[in-house]
Amino acid sequence: MRHRFAAALLGCLALACTVVSPASAEAPQAPAAQDDAALIAAHRTFWSAYEAGDLWRMSQLWARDDDRISAAFPASATLSVGWGNVQESFRRTFAHNRNVRVDARLLRSAREGDVAWFVSAVRYEAVQTQTGQFVLLDRMFTTEVYKRQNGEWRLAHYHGHFPGFRTMTDDPATIVLAPPPIERPDDPVWKLHERFTAAFSALELGAMFELFSPQKSVTALQPTAPVPFFGPENVIASWKKTFGEVQALTIEPLQVVVEQSGSVAWVTELSQFHIAFKAKPDEIQHFHSVLTTYVLRKEAGQWQIAHYHAHFGFGFEAHQH
Question: Among the CATH numbers 3.10.450.50, 2.60.40.1180, 1.10.10.10, 3.40.50.720, which is that of 9-18+28-161?
């Protein structure tokens, strides 16, 4: 496996570090430095296990006793929630391909209290187990969310997608015609998610912009964009072209999972999108498996979006590489 973890990786993490004076140079590592090292090790182990198809080693990284851990896979139409479902999704992923080679390059990462998240670009090579066909995903994008549990950093969420996959609309017969209402607690995180969904549905860029962090560290991974977006202006600009082509949009959340630790929360969502494009305003296109990850950070008493990651999901059988 070819990881490009240069010495600058620690700096790239942008995690809080304690400066050690020369007089204490031989003292044990400060807690923050130990956290940084442990997180980097977990990130490396994740991709090493992914490349090796090692389900046992992968399982050791996850907070398996938390029924809200979740994963969104590139070739899946569902959100995997709870270790049993996450494990089965990894098992299927590992079974579908062999001779896997992974080159994971860290693009951005941050840590806030007991939560850290990584944004990576991954080159994935493999051979399909059943067909013998060569698979090359030259730039897959991934999000990993870790939380500290009993003194150990454990994976709480993974989201991966390949923007080069052909976006496929769904047969109207597969659409959930009357999605059951989602129970929304009277909670600031849920309210922000609801406001963002409303602004997105209304194609209101200004209202969406207000919900993102003003920090330069804010990031977004869009479904079909071949590049990541860094900084609030670029993040919002990533929607402008799409909105310019859309006449109307309806978003229907089908499943929402919210988890919070201190000043960080992460939301994972499965939704239906119904879109009328300006080129064909009388034709509604349906996407019944839009998978989205939000990482929220509380800044100056207000929850704001620090990272956004979305893609159009599909069943593995519906798409041959």
Answer: 3.10.450.50
User: Tens-of-pLDDT digits for all 321 residues of the chain?
Assistant: 544 333 333 334 433 332 233 333 344 445 677 878 999 999 999 999 999 999 999 999 999 988 999 999 998 889 999 999 999 999 999 999 999 999 999 999 999 999 999 999 999 999 999 999 999 999 999 999 999 999 999 999 999 999 986 655 556 656 666 677 888 889 999 999 999 999 999 999 999 999 999 999 999 999 999 999 999 999 999 999 889 999 999 999 999 999 999 999 999 999 999 999 999 999 999 888 999 999 999 999 999 999 999 999 876 544 443
231-249 CB burial, b ≥16 within 10 A, e <16: bbeebbebbeebeeeeeeb
- Which residue, 291, 289, 320, is CA-closest to 308? 291
pTM, full prediction: 0.87
SS3 category, 47 = helix
Taking CA atoms, 11 is separated from 6, 107, 109, 124, in Å, by 10, 12, 10, 25
Structure tokens at 113: 């209290």
